[in-house]
Design goal:
The chain is an alpha/beta fold and 330 residues long. It folds into two domains: 166 residues, Thiolase/Chalcone synthase (Peroxisomal Thiolase, Chain A, domain 1), CATH 3.40.47.10; 151 residues, Peroxisomal Thiolase, Chain A, domain 1 (3-Layer(aba) Sandwich). It is 33% helix and 23% strand. The protein is built from eleven helices and 13 strands. The strands form four sheets. It has a five-stranded mixed β-sheet with strand order 1-7-6-4-5, sandwiched between helices. A four-stranded mixed β-sheet has the order 8-13-12-11, with helices on both faces. A hairpin with a 3-residue loop joins β12 and β13. α8 runs parallel beside α9. It is globular. The two termini are 18 Å apart. The chain binds coenzyme A. Coenzyme A binds next to α2, α6, α8 and β12.
């Protein structure tokens, strides 16, 4: 069967070995395991080594996804990396991973859509495949956010973690193969200031003063972000279901962005879906931004929590603001 639909041919994920628990954080800032657990659901997060940058984490998940797809890196036509913690402002982290993988035939670029990065990137890959421009695309979401977090700011440092996930996207070749059914993407730049890393760009170039003012660290207005996260992820979920002509009960597993268990529970309540259909791993990894949904997808597949033919809905929200959702048939 020839088709112009895009399938996920392989997935993989990688998190660093080092675990930072809430009890460890109690020794760093004025916080408690009780506060972090009750307000966020997070118990621990992974932290990259001093010598591990976003590309190193992304490279590990990319190798796993390629192995899962039984594909050689030289068969890749394009690498898209979603990250807000790139190795450098430029060149793209995608180019660094391209070289490490030996993906010599692949074009490569980064995407900045914060925690919605994977949804934006996989949707872009889907469109490249459906347009017939490329056959095999590697989408990587990778974050080394521990390097951008102010470890003296209890409002943010307890929330984030490091990790990466990757998916190989290619042409759907047989009727039995699953595919990316539909996606929706949104943004509203009105909220740029609520979640940002202000320093080090061309607005506030790095200087002694920007470093003194800690402008190179991630800043967030938690409360306002919370409300808009719930509202926007619900909106995206309903929009993508409607586009795909599906109902919540048609979805075998919902994977919401893993930032805070209370955000996930608020969405679940409005969608009226049972606990067993909503995957949660925020307790283990905290918020790994672009990587949360693909790490979760890898886990549900590898743990056998879903089966071939099942439909999975990924929905995310992040800085920008950006938000979006995608439905994948496995
Ligand atoms: C950050 C967040 C957990 C805070 O929870 P909250 O219930 O809204 O808490 P508040 O912001 O009202 O803060 C309550 C108090 O806890 C304090 N607090 C903040 N972080 C704390 C910590 N780690 N430990 C202990 N106390 C803390 C605050 O200073 C505040 O104290 P105050 O009342 O004396 O000023 C929550 O707003 C949130 O998850 N927001 C969304 C964040 C997010 O998901 N961002 C990424 C989206 S992609």
């Amino acid at each position: 069967m020839s088709s112009n639909k895009a399938s996920i041919l392989g997935i993989g994920s990688y998190v660093p070995d080092k675990i930072l628990t809430n009890l460890d954080l109690e020794k760093i800032v004025d916080t408690s395991d009780e506060w972090i657990t009750s307000r966020t659901g997070i118990k621990e997060r992974r932290i990259a080594d001093d010598n591990q940058a976003a590309s190193d984490l992304g490279y590990e998940s990319a190798k796993r996804a390629l192995k899962d797809a039984k594909m050689n890196a030289s068969e890749l036509d394009l690498i898209i990396v979603a990250t807000i913690s790139p190795d450098m402002i430029f060149p793209a982290t995608a180019c660094i991973i391209q070289e490490k993988l030996g993906a010599k035939n692949a074009a490569a670029f980064d995407m900045s859509a914060a925690c919605t990065g994977f949804i934006y990137a996989i949707t872009t890959a889907k469109m490249f495949i459906e347009a017939g421009m490329y056959n095999n695309i590697l989408v990587i979401a990778t974050e080394a956010l521990s390097k951008f977090v102010d470890w003296e700011d209890r409002n943010t440092c307890v929330l984030f973690g490091d990790g990466s996930g990757a998916a190989v996207v290619g042409k759907k070749k047989s009727a039995k193969q699953g595919y990316i059914i539909d996606s929706c993407l949104s943004a509203n730049g009105l909220y740029v200031d609520l979640l940002k890393t202000p320093g080090g760009g061309s607005r506030y170039p790095a200087s002694k003063q920007t470093v003194k003012d800690k402008m190179h660290y991630l800043k967030m207005s938690g409360n306002e972000v919370f409300k808009l996260a719930v509202q926007s992820m619900l909106e995206a979920t309903f929009e993508v279901l409607e586009k795909a002509k599906l109902k919540p009960e048609d979805i075998a597993c919902f994977i919401p962005h893993q930032a805070n268990i209370r955000i996930i529970q608020a969405i679940q309540k409005r969608l009226k879906v049972p606990d067993e259909k909503v995957y949660i791993n925020v307790d283990k990894y905290g918020n790994t931004s672009a990587a949360t949904v693909i790490i979760a997808l890898d886990e549900i597949v590898k743990q056998g929590l879903v089966k071939k033919g099942d439909k999975v809905l990924l929905v995310a929200f992040g800085g920008g603001f950006t938000w979006g959702a995608t439905i994948i048939q496995l």
